[in-house]
Amino acid sequence: MLCKALLNECKTLDPSHEAAVVNKVSERLSQPGVAIGLAWTPLGGEIMFVEASRMDGEGQLTLTGQLGDVMKESAHLAISWLRSNAKKYHLTNGERPSPGRASGSFDLLDNTDIHLHFPAGAVTKDGPSAGVTIVTCLASLFSGRLVRSDVAMTGEITLRGLVLPVGGIKDKVLAAHRAGLKQVIIPQRNEKDLEEIPGNVRQDLSFVTASCLDEVLNAAFDGGFIVKTRPGLLNSKL
Length: 238
Prior knowledge:
CATH class: Alpha Beta
CATH architecture: 2-Layer Sandwich
Order of helices and strands: HHEEEHEHEEEHEHEHEE
Organism: Lynx pardinus (Iberian lynx)
Distance between the termini: 31 Å
GO molecular function, one term: serine-type endopeptidase activity
Structural class: alpha/beta
Protein name: Lon protease homolog peroxisomal
CATH topology: Ribosomal Protein S5, domain 2
Helix content: 25-40%
Shape: globular
Number of strands: 11
Radius of gyration: 18 Å
Number of helices: 7
Oligomer: single chain
Strand order of the largest sheet: 1-2-4-3
Largest sheet: 4 strands, mixed
Keywords: ATP-binding, Hydrolase, Nucleotide-binding, Protease, Serine protease
């Protein structure tokens, strides 16, 4: 989960150079299907990009980037949660339903394969904390909307859409700050860990403490995420 080139550049004291690094981050999020996560290593926190693409296929999920078993499980959890909430969030894969499927039913994986990639492929990655980032990345892909380029996130997910606490919050927040990001989404149950972060860093960042994936998506996209309501009612934001 290493993005050392970006992080090393961010440590410079030259403001113009730091601005250039921030622009590099923005460029990475200039199309749907990319989100910024936060990872912990023995050397400290790192920002971590997650990328997704879709193609015609038979509902297969491909994972690349040297992932451990726990991280692979997070990816499958993210897919399952999005499939069960696709209508709620107006998500589409642009394909017609598979032959034989009941009228009105829809599945994100109809005639669709998904590829999730975690750059820095030479580095082994594992752990559950990328769950919220994977969900956000895929929600971006299937909605066609860009994730905010100044937001990073961390948190484990459950099949019911809960966000569970993770470790390394201080180091992860410091990594986001070094990279010039402005907002960090963390699990609500990690809110107490913010007390360990230096005051000057807390002043430069805004924090969203999320207990569920609805709250994560609402914070990760400009203007929130549109939710389909009951027939006869206006659509609403989270």
